[in-house]
Amino acid sequence: MRAVVYDRYGPPDVLRLEDVERPKLKDGAVLVRIRAVAVTRADCATREANRRSGPVVSLISRSISGFRRPKQRVLGSELAGEVEAVGAGVSEFAVGDRVFGTSGFHFGAYAEFISMRESTRIAHMPAGMSFEQAASICDGGLNALRCLRLADLHRGQRVLVYGASGAIGTAAVQLARYFGADVTAVCGTKNLELARSLGADRVIDYTQEDFAKNGQTYGVIFDAVGKHSFSRCRGSLDPGGSYLATDGLRNLILAVWTARIGDKRVLFSIPPRYTKQDVVFLKELIEAGRYRAVLDRCYPLEDVVHATRYVETERKTGNVVLTIDDHRVR
Ligand SMILES: NC(=O)c1ccc[n+]([C@@H]2O[C@H](COP(=O)([O-])OP(=O)(O)OC[C@H]3O[C@@H](n4cnc5c(N)ncnc54)[C@H](OP(=O)(O)O)[C@@H]3O)[C@@H](O)[C@H]2O)c1
Description:
Elements: E1 2-5, E2 16-19, E3 29-38, H1 41-47, H2 55-65, E4 78-86, E5 98-102, E6 113-117, E7 122-124, H3 131-135, H4 138-151, E8 158-162, H5 167-178, E9 182-187, H6 192-197, E10 202-205, E11 218-223, H7 230-233, E12 237-244, H8 249-260, E13 265-267, H9 276-287, E14 295-300, H10 304-311, E15 319-323
Parallel strand pairs: 8-9, 8-11, 9-10, 11-12, 12-13, 14-15
Antiparallel strand pairs: 1-2, 3-4, 3-6, 3-15, 4-5, 5-7
Helix pairs in contact: 4-5
């Protein structure tokens, strides 16, 4: 099968198409013919061994993905496709079912096929969705869900989402609203209307106004794009308020520190732990019309380097997806 592989950590150019062996179908697993796969910030960070985050984070990253070279040559986690074959004992899925989900840090989805156990994070696609849209559900959706659950939101709580136009940010606005929060979204000028359409009660254009200086306070500030800091927005937190972080070793240390000292906390959970129930939860929200995945651009699998460069501009709106031709219908 065709897959995008990489054999050394480095810039987007280390990615290349290659013919590799098709994954073997095991008992209790389904073989999925992948039709669309998201290119995520996590893919990019893993590909460059998190060098941009400094030597300590890079070392931790390599301890997981391989010290000298990547152990898993195929990146990509958030996918959508069709069930090609089912292993013994599979009861939830049948050949031809349209499915979506995430392989998480097992990766392997920049490829024509992936084998996933049916008990893992895979579910039937919401009705009426394209593969491209379905591949856009899990990255932001699962990350935002995990963060917001940490914050234990209550109805009417004032939540500010900083970076409301990214994959996590667009998901966070919608999920915080779903959990009953009063949501202020902070994004750039071109995405103000998008943030409103996702349900934000208020929007702030970060190019025009610094939310940390306008005197407003919030129970939760969700830094959905890793561009702010606890110290800069501490004054905008209510007493007992929480700063939700998505990135940065510093935030991990602050999470430990603020759990013991002071009444304002940094919340940060790694490693991320998502369940099949979380994937099904997002599917059900979509079917109920309470959630949508925001898709910025699609690229064919062959253009993975261009797609990756675009993701690395850190300016995408929602998600970027690679599409994989179905050679059977050519
Ligand atoms: N902890 C984890 O497990 C985990 C997993 C995945 C991702 N992450 C991290 O989570 C963060 C978000 O990832 P993502 O994929 O959601 O991001 P993303 O989609 O790449 O974010 C892009 C968006 O951020 C906005 N943005 C860029 N600079 C900004 C700024 N200074 N202020 C406000 N908005 C800004 C851009 O809008 P404009 O063009 O209008 O500026 C763009 O729409 C990243 O730091 C990523 O590394 C963490």
